[in-house]
Amino acid sequence: MLRPDYEGGGLVNLMASLMTGLGGRPSDLYPPLAGLPPQEVKAAANVVLLLLDGLGHDYLIQNGAGGALCRHLQGPITSVFPPTTAAAVTTVLTAVGPQQHAVTGWFVHLRELGTVSALLPFRPRWGAGAVSMKTDWIRGP
Fold this sequence. Notes:
3-stranded antiparallel β-sheet, mainly alpha
């Protein structure tokens, strides 16, 4: 397994570059991506983030030679640990690693709520309906 590079070569560093370059507060936890200084992001006329879940650098090199994605490839970055969709997507949305956002997998036991939940769609594991914090778990007067 490839270990994540949180010191300048990973997904969380890409988000630090984008966040800072687009006017957000620089991260206290993670430096910008080594290959993408925030100044380059700031100078860009347009910024588009395309997230392709499961498309790794090695796969792209082996199977995408000559394609548009391969032609514009700048280099590899690492994901997060654990390398799950839920952890990586939450890192993209929050610009922090799983050790801060605590989403480590699709299903997470929420002890305080007494349930196992699919966190990204925020619904209980055992059904298809969305969970309402107000009506399902918060007891009030």
